[in-house]
Amino acid sequence: MSLRLYDTAARAVREFTPLRAGQASVYVCGLTVQGPPHVGHVRSALAFDVLRRWLAHSGLEVTYVRNVTDIDDKILAKAEAAGVPWWAWAYTNELAVTRAYDVLGVLPPTYEPRATGHVPDMVELMQRLVERGHAYAVDGDVYFDVRSFPGYGALTGQKLEDLQPAADTGTEERKRDPRDFALWKAHKPGEPGTASWATPWGRGRPGWHLECSAMAGRYLGPEFDIHGGGLDLRFPHHENEQAQSRAAGDGFARYWLHNGWVTLGGEKMSKSLGNTALVDEVVQRVRPVELRYYLVTPHYRSTIEFTDAALAEAGAAYRRLESFVKRAAERVGASVGVVGQVDDGGKAEPAPDFTAAMDDDLGTPAAVAVVHEVVREGNTALAEGDDDAVAGALGSVRAMLGVLGLDPLDPHWTAAGADDGLARATDGLVALALEQRQAARARKDYAAADAIRDRLAALGVQVEDTPQGPRWELSR
């Protein structure tokens, strides 16, 4: 492979060489389901969805694991405040997260484990750490001894003596070192009994960091290719994951990838800051495919400032691509570019510059620029009536947009969010109006024809006259 990825641990771009030839193993930290997801949350899912698609396009069989953290302090607190069981609160928000992923075209993971379903794996990992002298129990709590592992801090390039105490409030007197972090939290008075599990050290629940190490090991083995997540997870979460897994004898992740933040008003989008844009609300204002375009076009490691103006600009840019694909498909056939195939049996491939951009640490800004350039060439071919050039451009554009999850003719987008009955009714009514317009033009009643077109435009239906007849699309 010629793919190069920025490895956080190496602090450099590295050639990607899979652990096993022809395969790629990826673990991405999913969400803690304490509430419905905002745009900042799904940015990570989209970034690694593009990575997964590119790995698959490059010929690799991808095993993709994305977990669900369905038990933690915030879930317990919010469920108590709402007066519902913690597991009901978690599941309701898990459904909201899944709905957001689905509406934005994120491919389902190969496996999607829940933390609460893997307590035996966590207990086994803690036992290994205790036996190796890297963990210790105190009154039902189990802590990782950071001083016992010389490599602690290597992922983020920090020295142990410079680190602040771990954020386990009220437990400092129990620890050997204030920077030791909780692997397991003892059950506390007042907490629901259903939020605890039996272990050799007493009943309790897992610490956040322990969960991902256990689940990654269960589904991908002691060593795997790529671990991904948001930039804010580098420390302490990923640092702690790496330390506990390697202290237990596992190789763990060979590459670490982190996506940048989505900011609002210059600050990281965060529920704790109250500056969020919920996905469910944003997709009521813009089409989901346009939100996806907005979030995957910038480089995955860059920061995105979320504004309505930028979102509108992205939507307009995507509609230019969409318009070409639909017009070209009407001209040369919608089968061109389907699943990467063209009518002559050859394979429709991305443009070489697109491939080069994607192989350079998933360089989506340059890759999307290539798509727009090919679309410009395709529009010229449409205007000149060069159907062979149109077919070639259409196949290439669909191949490239497919990698980005943005192919307008993908069934996910043609049916996304649309009620089939309503869509059929809309199509029929517009077709009837266009027939009336054509009849008016045939009898040279151009005033009536223009009036129909203007009325459709006022309703958001844009009509374009082509040599093949009128075509229409909804405007935003």
Automatic annotation (TrEMBL):
Compartments (UniProt record): Cytoplasm
Family matches, as InterPro entries: Cys-tRNA-ligase (IPR015803), Cys-tRNA-synt_Ia_DALR (IPR015273), Cys-tRNA/MSH_ligase (IPR024909), CysS_C (IPR056411), Rossmann-like_a/b/a_fold (IPR014729), tRNA-synt_1_cat_dom (IPR032678), tRNAsynth_Ia_anticodon-bd (IPR009080)
UniProt cross-references to SUPFAM superfamilies, sorted A to Z: Anticodon-binding domain of a subclass of class I aminoacyl-tRNA synthetases, Nucleotidylyl transferase
Organism this protein belongs to: Geodermatophilus obscurus
Record key words, sorted: Aminoacyl-tRNA synthetase, ATP-binding, Cytoplasm, Ligase, Metal-binding, Nucleotide-binding, Protein biosynthesis, Zinc
Enzyme class per UniProt: ligase
GO molecular function annotation: ATP binding; cysteine-tRNA ligase activity; zinc ion binding
Assembly and binders: Monomer.
Chain span(s) of sequence motif 'KMSKS' region: 268-272
Domain of life: Bacteria
Major location category of this protein: cytoplasm
Binding annotation for ATP: 271
Protein name per its UniProtKB record: Cysteine--tRNA ligase
Co-factor: note: Binds 1 zinc ion per subunit.
EC number: 6.1.1.16
Keyword Zinc: yes
NCBIfam families in the cross-refs: cysS (TIGR00435)
Catalytic activity: tRNA(Cys) + L-cysteine + ATP = L-cysteinyl-tRNA(Cys) + AMP + diphosphate
Family: Belongs to the class-I aminoacyl-tRNA synthetase family.
A GO biological-process term: cysteinyl-tRNA aminoacylation
Database matches in CDD domains: CysRS_core
